[in-house]
């Protein structure tokens, strides 16, 4: 699995342009975006990486593509601290985290690290092999019962 990173102008319509281009080619995304000044950074995973690359190239959007891991943590205080301390103690730097699924019990994230071999070694079973986070999230949403809303 790979993570895409694109830099866009911090102005109305830029994120829509990216999402519309992907949707027009049937590429589904899980993304996170942030801005600083005039620039914005969008990080995403796609259910069709080759399709996403083609869309970015056709749209003239510069991008970086990096290998990534999907990890699982308990959704409770201290789980992140424990996970990222393991990585730090092994000399592994985590420079990207993209949350992809959160439940009452578990938290799944896609991470990019500077040493995949050591990350695999120290995280062991926390690494989710062969998970397609985009499809998993879509299936989870589709299969979840509607939530009743109440107001006061």
Q: How are the SSEs ordered, and which strands pair?
A:
Layout: E1 2-9, H1 14-24, E2 29-36, E3 39-46, H2 49-59, E4 63-67, E5 69-74, H3 79-89, E6 94-102, E7 106-113, H4 116-123, H5 133-143
Antiparallel strand pairs: 1-3, 1-4, 2-3, 5-7, 6-7
In summary, what is this structure?
With 152 residues, the protein is an alpha+beta fold. Helices cover 34% and strands 34% of the residues. It has 2 domains: 2-67, VC0802-like (2-Layer Sandwich); 69-143, Alpha-Beta Plaits, CATH 3.30.70.260.
Per DSSP E runs of 2 or more residues, the count of β-strands stands at 7
User: Class of the largest domain in CATH?
Assistant: Alpha Beta
Domain unit count? 2
Low-confidence stretches: 146-152
Q: What can you tell me about this protein's structure?
A:
This protein has 5 helices and 7 strands; from the N terminus they run E-H-E-E-H-E-E-H-E-E-H-H. By secondary structure, the protein is of the alpha+beta class. It has 2 domains: 66 residues, VC0802-like; 75 residues, Alpha-Beta Plaits, CATH 3.30.70.260. The strands form 2 sheets. Strands 2-3-1-4 form a 4-stranded antiparallel sheet. A 3-stranded antiparallel sheet has the order 5-7-6, with helices on both faces. Strand 6 and strand 7 form a beta hairpin. The C terminus is likely disordered.
């Amino acid at each position: 699995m790979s993570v895409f990173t694109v830099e866009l102008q911090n102005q109305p319509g830029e994120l829509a342009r990216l999402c519309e281009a992907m949707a027009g080619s049937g590429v589904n995304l899980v993304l996170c975006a942030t801005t600083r000044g005039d620039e914005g950074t969008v990080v995403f995973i796609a259910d069709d990486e080759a399709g996403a690359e083609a869309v970015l190239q056709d749209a003239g959007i510069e991008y970086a593509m990096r290998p990534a891991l999907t990890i699982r943590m308990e959704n409770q205080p201290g789980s992140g601290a424990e996970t990222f301390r393991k990585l730090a103690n092994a000399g592994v730097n985590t420079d990207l985290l993209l949350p992809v699924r959160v439940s009452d019990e578990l938290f799944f994230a896609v991470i990019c690290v500077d040493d995949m071999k050591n990350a695999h070694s120290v995280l062991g079973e926390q690494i989710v092999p062969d998970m397609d986070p985009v499809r998993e999230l879509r299936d989870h949403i589709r299969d979840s019962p509607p939530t009743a809303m109440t107001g006061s």
